[in-house]
Amino acid sequence: MTILRRVLAAAMLSFAALCGQQAVAEDTIKIGYVDPLSGPFAATGDNFLKVFSYVVELANAKGGPLGKKYELVPFDSKLQPAEALIALKSITDQNIPFVMHCVGSNVGAAMIDGVSKYNARNPDHRILYMNCGALATELTNEQCDFWHFRFTANVDQRAVARIKTLPATVKSAYLVNQDYLFGQSVQKATRKYLAEYRPDIKVVGDELVPFGKVQDFTPYIAKVKASGAQSLITSNYDRDMNLLLKAGNDAGLNIRYDAFLAHQPGGPTSIGPAGENRLTSVMEFHDNVPVEEHNAAAEKFVNGFQSRANFNFIPLDYVVMFDMLTAAINKAGSTDALKVALALEGLKVKDLMGEDNEMRASDHQLLSPLHEAMFTKGVKYDAEKTGLGWKSEAKLTGADLTLPTSCKMKRPAS
User: Fold this and answer.
1) Would you say residue 414 has pLDDT above 90?
2) Over the stretch 72-99, which tens digit does the pLDDT of each residue have?
3) In the predicted model, is pLDDT for residue 23 greater than 90?
4) What are the DSSP calls for 153-168, one per residue?
5) Rounded to 5 degrees, what are φ and ψ at 117?
6) What whole-number distance in Å separates Cα of residue 63 and Cα of residue 78?
7) Are 101 and 115 in contact (CB under 8 A)?
8) Residue 41: its pLDDT value, please?
9) Could you give the count of Cα atoms lying within 13 Å of 312 in the half-sphere of its Cβ?
10) Phi/psi zone of residue 364: left (φ > 0), alpha (ψ -120 to 50 degrees), beta?
11) Pairwise CA distance, residues 105 & 298, whole Å
12) Going by C-beta distance under 8 Å and a sequence separation of 6 or more, which residues neighbour residue 105?
C-alpha cells in the first residue's frame, strides 16, 4: 500500500508540474523569429535580436495582448531560403502562431510561398507571416499573399523618399546595388523615380555586385571615381555597405553617398569622419528625431535603448509592428491567424512621434513616415561614438508615400 501511495503521489506531482508548465505556456504568445544568426550577416541578426528584446520588453510592460506576454523563439536562416524553410517547419511543428523575419527579400519570397502552402494544407493550424525587413516591392505587388504583412516601407516607397530629397546641385549619379531580389528591385525603382522626379540627373554607371561575396570594393570604387559622378546611390547594407564605404575612404573618393541603408549598425563606423556632410540615408527614425521635434517621451525611449546597446535605435516601425499586432490580437480576442489578419487589415496606430501608420488592406503594406538624414556634427546624439550623428533634412509622411499597388490578393474563405 505504501508503494502504491508513493506511485500515486509521484503521478499527481508530475501531473501538477505538467499543468503548471501548460499554464505558463498559455500565458505567453510565441513568435518564431527567423534571421541570420550565423554566417557573414550574423551581426545583423544579432543586432536585431537586441532591438527586439527591447521592443518586446516594452510591449509586454504595457500589458501585452490579451494580458499575456510575447516570447521570441529565434531560428537561424543563415540568409538562405532553404534554411528559412527548415526553420518554418520547426515553427509550424511547435504550433507557434506567428513567424517574423527581417533580413533578405530572397528569404522573404520563400517565406511567403512556404506559409501560404502550409496554411492551405492546414486550415486548423494556420500561421501569420510578419515581414519586418524584406523590402522588395514585388512582395506586396506581384507576390502579395493574404498571410503576409509587411510592417516596414518597401523599396518603391524608399526610392521615392531617396530621389525626392536629392539636392538640386546633384546632376550625375552612379548606382551600386546587390545582385539579388532586393538590390534588383532598388535598381529598377531608382531608375524609375529618377526619370519621374529628377530627369536632370544623368546615370553615369550602374552596378549589380555579388551579394555578400565581395571582399574588396576597390575595383568598383575606381570605376565610380573615374565616372566623375557627384552621387553614389546605393542600397548595399551590412558588410557590403561597410566594405563599400571603407574602400571609398581608402581611395579618397570625394563624393556624396546617398544611401538607402547606411544608418544600419556599422555604417557610421565604416565611413567615420569622411562621411561628414557627405553621407545621407533614408530611415524610419534616428536618435535625434525626438530632439528635433521636442518629444520628451520618445527621447526617454531612445535613452533606454542607448543604455543597453552599442548602436543607435532606428527601426521605429518595429515598435509600430508590435503595437499593431497587440491591437489586432485584442480585437480578434484570439491568436487565430485568420482572425488576426482580418483585424490587421486597415488598422491605424500612431507611433512614438504621433505620426499616423496604416496597414493597407489591399496589399498588406504598411504606410508610414520616412526621414532623410545627413551624417553630421552638432547633433545631441552621435552614432556609434563617431562624433557625428544623424540630422533630418526632410520627412515624408505615410500619405506622401502611399503608392499604387498591383496586388491581386487571393483571400481565404471566411
Assistant:
1) no
2) 999 999 999 999 999 999 999 999 999 9
3) no
4) --HHHHHHHHHHTS-T
5) -70, -40
6) 33
7) no
8) 86
9) 26
10) left
11) 30
12) 134, 135, 136, 138, 139, 180, 181, 182, 185
pLDDT of 244 above 80? yes
For residues 208 and 177, the answer to whether their CB atoms sit within 8 Å is yes
Which amino acid, one-letter code, is at 148? H
The Cα 351–Cα 368 span in angstroms is 9
| Strand ranges across the sheet with 365-367 | 69-76, 28-35, 98-101, 128-131, 148-150, 365-367, 356-360, 348-350
292-306 pLDDT, tens digit per residue, is: 999 999 999 999 999
Q: What is the mean pLDDT of the chain?
A: 92
Domains of the chain: 156-283 (3.40.50.2300)
Helix (H, G, I), strand (E, B) or coil at 150: strand
Pull the grid cell for residue 371. 526621414
**pLDDT tens for residues 169-212?**
999 999 999 999 999 999 999 999 999 999 999 999 999 999 98
DSSP character at residue 233: E
Residue 70's closest CA among 304, 323, 305, 300? 323
* Integer Cα distance of 363 and 358 in angstroms: 12
Q: Please give the full DSSP string across 93-112, using - where no structure is assigned.
A: HTT-SEEEE-S-HHHHHHHH
**Rounded distance, CA 202 to CA 208, Å?**
18
Q: What is the pLDDT of residue 26?
A: 64
For residue 151, the number of C-alpha atoms closer than 13 Å in the C-beta half-sphere is 28
